[in-house]
Amino acid sequence: SGTSEIRNRTPFLRVMVSAKSVVSYLVLGVAAATSWWFADALTPKEAAGAKPDSGPVDYYSHDVRRTSLDMEGKPKEILVADKMTHYKKDDHTVLDEPVMTLFNRGGQPPWIIDADSGVALSNGKAIFLNGDVLITRKTESGDEFQIITRNVKYVPDKHYAETSEDALLL
């Protein structure tokens, strides 16, 4: 009779385990659907092909060469670009094919940063060098040090550059 009680309980136990599994899967499914909905709802939407409204062009120039000097009147940086377009609305400048030469203190060889395009924020607080970026510098022995990467942020006041992309050092 003890064996018949166990046999009678077995189908019930299978149903309970099965019901637990179903509830677990339902909870996991609801959690997955909710997280997908939150991710979709919190991601900014952009109209297909639409560009942000930068407002009217304030001024532009072709074949630009700008030299910034330090407090002693020595070149601090030189910016060369095929085209420069300034937008008054949010005071940013778009650069086509910029090449920046950054002079170091102490007479060391300069860093040269060559990019596909760039955007300089208001008052030059940060410059975003976009697309393929090649950074070069001569070493004291005359060899050339190169960094190949993409999408570099340069902060002129701190003499600091960074990227979240992979970088190849040569």
What does this structure look like?
The chain is of the alpha+beta class and 170 residues long. Strands 1, 2, 3, 4, 5, 6, 7, 8 and 9 form a 9-stranded antiparallel β-sheet that branches. It is elongated and about 80 Å long. About 4% of the residues have low confidence.
Please specify the SSE layout and strand pairing:
Blueprint: H1 2-42, E1 57-69, E2 75-87, E3 92-96, E4 99-102, E5 111-120, E6 127-138, E7 144-155, E8 160-162, E9 168-169
Antiparallel strand pairs: 1-2, 2-3, 2-4, 3-5, 4-5, 5-6, 6-7, 7-8, 7-9
Which key phrases capture this entry?
alpha+beta; nine-stranded antiparallel sheet; elongated
What is the molecular shape? elongated
Query: Which residues form runs of ≥5 with pLDDT under 50?
Result: 44-50
Amount of beta strand:
35-45%
Helix content: 10-25%
How large is the radius of gyration?
30 Å
Total number of β-strand segments?
9
Chain-averaged pLDDT: 81
